[in-house]
Prior knowledge:
Helices cover about 45% and strands about 15% of the residues. By secondary structure, it is α/β, with parallel strands linked by helices. It has a seven-stranded parallel beta sheet with strand order 3-4-2-5-6-1-7, with helices on both faces. Helix 7 links the parallel strand 5 (about 145-150) and strand 6. The protein is globular. The two termini are about 20 Å apart.
Amino acid sequence: MKLKKLTPELVSGLVDAGFDKDPKEIQSLSISQIKSGADLFIVSPEGSGKTTAIVIGVIQRLKEAFEEVPRVIILAATKEKALDLEAQFEIIGKHTNLRTFTAFDQGVIQYQKDMIYDGLDVLIVTPKRLNELLKFTGIPVTKIKMFVVDDADSFALDKYNLICRVAESIDKLQVIIVANAWIEIFAKLSERIMKSPRIIKPK
């Protein structure tokens, strides 16, 4: 993996985790695009390294902790996926001071709301809990700059309305849709909530 343009703290985390050698194709293709701020579809099979690419790209864009409100929302399909993302942020971002928190359906919503308002940079959240937090003003969105939807091809159709509602409520937002395969509804998302999105696929 080319490390010269990454922050020193991120480089240290990648080296410690062994991600500095032989990056997977989707990582080489997508990390610089995430950093650019462009709206993206990242489409690659399960196990191809998409999650790691997202974590690296988010850390590189944010660089360090800032103020008390989240700047990134990552929508994960399940609690297990959300916790996997959180674990990767802890490993790769361990030399940064970025703050990550995961909110999922089974958790106590008031506790989760308090944790969000106490200050964090990256909120990882499941669809049902995101909807509930938004309903009860549990997420300040004034500083959100990235909205990532992981495993987007696995969501039930009604979840796409939630995705659109979030994206349409925030100005100057980078939207990243991550999936194992392209599905028909992505074309509608592209037209409705994305700005000239780039499609990234391995050859």
